[in-house]
């Protein structure tokens, strides 16, 4: 799959009600809960760029809630928009919990049609997405060169070898890193801000024709 040049990024078990504020055209950064300085400087730039392209949205008109967990439905929206997928004329993937009237139906269906997510009985759009699931979606979505061996010093790799290769792939591209020198925390939930950073970094590397940090 050929990657599209576009800015992109982003990142909720008990579902926290939120009001999606989706821009229809380029817009300035409206969110006041991210600082354009210090440790949040990259996050600010990422969310600002992605929001201006309509890839991510806030939880209110003035908040992005970067430390709130990302739902699988939100993840589908962010990724499908980043990939510029067709979300209107889509084939129904048959998820029982994602009817055609669902707010993320088009985006979820688009990912399923491309094989980025698996068709199953349910998609669980209101459940949180974890770090290993995110690694798979980004690797398949952006058609990254998948790792064939594991070189990271993580003691908490999963028992599934394919999942581990998705994790290693993101590490090779420098899209993410571990939660410590020896852990990746594959089952830890991804926040909205983290997803924004992952998408932003991936799209930046695309603009630079993608490069791999380490070669196996």
Task: Please give a handful of descriptors for the protein shown.
about 220 residues, 6 helices, mainly alpha, globular, disordered N terminus, single chain
Q: What this model shows, in words?
A:
- The chain is mainly alpha-helical.
- It is built from six helices and no strands.
Nutshell version of this structure?
This protein has 216 residues and is mostly helical.
Q: Pick out the low-confidence regions.
A: 1-26, 210-216
H/E series: HHHHHH
Gyration radius over CA: 16 Å
Instruction: Profile the largest sheet.
Output: none
**Through-space gap between termini:** 23 Å
Strand content: under 5%
| Helix content, binned percent | 25-40%
Work out the helix count. Answer: 6
What is the overall shape?
A: globular
- The tally of beta strands, per DSSP, is 0
Topology:
Layout: H1 41-52, H2 72-82, H3 105-113, H4 131-141, H5 161-173, H6 192-207
Helix pairs in contact: 1-6, 2-3, 2-6, 4-5
